[in-house]
Amino acid sequence: EPTSVPLDILINLRLILVSGKTKEFVFSPNDSAADIAKHVFDNWPMDWEEEQVSSPHILRLIYQGRFLHGNVTLGALKLPLGRTTVMHLVARETLPEPNSQGQRNREKTGESNCCVIL
């Protein structure tokens, strides 16, 4: 549907799948990562058919190497308005947590978890 919102106050997101396929979507700064995941899920591109997921809740956005939690808005990330921002879109059941047992031992071999310097 036509939108009356000027494009220069919106954020153009280019989402990249693990497979390398990309698609651009337009969002407002008030949209959260969870909103984006749901919108992409509801408007899944036809040429992403092989990557189709069963639920929007496992879609995760990665921006500058960091997983975005569902309640983080684009505005909070200080993304440039009217410009294209690239994010990665991956399917993951859970966000990586320091205390997720089992997985950690495989993924983090040789890396100490005791002291994380922020």
UniProtKB/TrEMBL annotation:
Family annotation (PROSITE patterns): UBIQUITIN_2
Ubiquitin-like domain: residues covered: 11-89
GO cellular component, one term: plasma membrane
Pfam families, alphabetized: Rad60-SLD_2 (PF13881)
Record-linked InterPro entries: MUB (IPR017000), Ubiquitin-like_dom (IPR000626), Ubiquitin-like_domsf (IPR029071), UBL3-like (IPR040015), UBL3-like_ubiquitin_dom (IPR039540), UBL3_Ubl_met (IPR047977)
Keyword hit for Lipid biosynthesis: no
Highest taxon, organism lineage: Eukaryota
Keywords of the record: Cell membrane, Lipoprotein, Membrane, Methylation, Palmitate, Prenylation
Compartment(s): Cell membrane
Protein name in the entry: Ubiquitin-like protein
Taxonomic lineage of the native organism: Eukaryota, Metazoa, Chordata, Craniata, Vertebrata
